[in-house]
């Protein structure tokens, strides 16, 4: 998705597309801790 939004921005110069690109870029940098915690809860304890 990141590459797609960048290519659309380069082709159109649309500022909204650039802002979307930056939001997608930020989301890719943030690790998703919720998924990791759910995996820990699902593992049986001995």
Taking all Cα atoms into account, the compactness measure Rg is 17 Å
Principal-axis shape equals rod-shaped
The helix/strand class is mainly alpha
- How would you name the oligomeric state of the polypeptide chains in this document? single chain
Largest sheet: none
Percentage of residues in helical conformation: over 70%
What string, H for helix and E for strand, traces the elements in order? HHH
- The fraction of residues in strands falls at under 5%
Describe the structure concisely for a colleague.
The chain has three helices and no strands.
What does this structure look like?
This protein has 46 residues and is mainly α. The protein has a domain at 1-28. It is built from three helices and no strands. The longest helix has 15 residues, at 15-29. It is rod-shaped, with a radius of gyration of 17 Å. The model has no long low-confidence stretch (mean pLDDT 82).
């Amino acid at each position: 998705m990141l590459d797609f939004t960048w290519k659309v921005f380069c082709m159109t110069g649309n500022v909204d597309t650039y802002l979307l690109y930056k939001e997608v870029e930020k989301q890719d940098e943030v690790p998703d801790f919720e998924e990791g915690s759910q995996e820990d809860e699902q593992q049986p304890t001995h």
